[in-house]
Known about the structure:
Blueprint: H1 4-24, E1 25-33, E2 40-48, E3 52-61, E4 70-79, H2 86-89, E5 101-108, E6 115-119, E7 122-129, E8 135-139, E9 159-162, E10 172-174, E11 180-184, E12 189-194, H3 198-204, H4 213-220, E13 224-226, E14 229-232, E15 238-243, E16 250-255, E17 260-264, E18 273-275, E19 283-288, E20 295-300, E21 305-309, E22 323-325, E23 332-337, E24 344-349, E25 354-358, E26 378-382, E27 389-394, E28 401-406, H5 409-412, E29 416-423, H6 425-428, H7 431-448
Parallel strand pairs: 9-13
Antiparallel strand pairs: 1-29, 2-3, 3-4, 4-5, 6-7, 7-8, 8-9, 10-11, 11-12, 12-14, 15-16, 16-17, 17-18, 19-20, 20-21, 21-22, 23-24, 24-25, 25-26, 27-28, 28-29
Amino acid sequence: MRGRQGAAAVDERYTQWKSLVPVLYDWFANHNLVWPSLSCRWGPQLEQATYKNRQRLYLSEQTDGSVPNTLVVANCEVVKPRVAAAEHIAEFNEEARSPFIKKFKTIIHPGEVNRIRELPQNSKIVATHTDSPDVLIWDVEAQPNRHAVLGAAESRPDLVLTGHRENAEFALSMCPIEPFVLSGGKDKLVVLWSIQDHISTLSSSDAADAKDEKDKEKVSESPKIAARGLFEGHDDTVEDVQFCPSSAQEFCSVGDDSCLIFWDARVGTTPVVKVEKAHNADLHCVDWNPHDVNFVLTGSADNSVRMFDRRNLTNGGVGAPVNKFEGHKSAVLCVQWAPHKASVFGSAAEDGFLNIWDYEKVGKKKEGSRMPNAPPGLFFQHAGHRDKVVDFHWNAADPWTIISVSDDGESTGGGGTLQLWRMSDLIYRPEEEVIAELEKFKNHLATCGPKT
């Protein structure tokens, strides 16, 4: 637990941040959770209107056992850019639920939800990791809405992916071009499946062929899919995995052995390139640039984010990062490239900050910069969370809009904090563009001013 001094410093930082909300953000919503959540994801956009869009959200509830753990499907009103009034943005009650978020459906999950990933080809299909060797696949639209009360039966996954030999708790990825799933676990394995394999699985366990009661029971269980490949090369727990955005056969993984490994299923189940000591500590997260497949980001317990160019890496594990981003004060838990701008990415850490970086800004620090003392590449710092930011997700349907979740129940009197936000476009737009717009606005005021 944090000491009194630490808590006071966090309170002071938070108060200062809250006073700047109308200046820093184009839109902001704060949602105090009943239970902690370790994962938050955007689902499909449902409806577009004049001032706001409606979109699905996926998050989890990690309970204390008094009620079941759940996977939550919510509806979210996403206010469009330049619609929210500055005076309204700052008026939120940090101990209340947000009016922008409404629970739509509850799925009773077998165990805690550690990670949620949606299928790019059909974002109504999600995969979850819990404290078990299996990956669970859910059709969230088809699943019945459940009432999460003590003793309620667990919801039945639509598919169960088997192949891990020990618990696989966090490393999970869905392929952008084919319905493939990738996972990593404590067994040091990276495991690959195709969701399409379930068609043959379903037909082989047809209820019509059930000979006795035992067979009928098996049919009522979730269909299982065996792995297409087990990839061995890590020496410790695999903490994160990621598909190459342009290939269903190429992927990478990071783990507690400090290694970043690249794989290619076409050439076998051993590493293609193994970067030893990618960081000086455990690696927690990895992401592959969707705009330029040469660039990969890693985040580590050494508090840093590193960017690797896979053209510079050789099979001997030789290869230095092309950039190091050092702005966090504790372990980096999550990294993700922005879907709308090739050089921008976010990183979330145990220090409570979610940093937004642009690698093109490295080495271009100018006098009079908006953040003169910032580490190279850092141009925005979201400081709305009071404790570790465990997950965040860029909104592909709404550029510059992010959902983030923190495990800060101790300081907020709730289970954790979910925040939806979009930074002001004055922050990321080129300065000359902003200056030109301000000049235009001044001229407009001059011509529309009171006539004497």
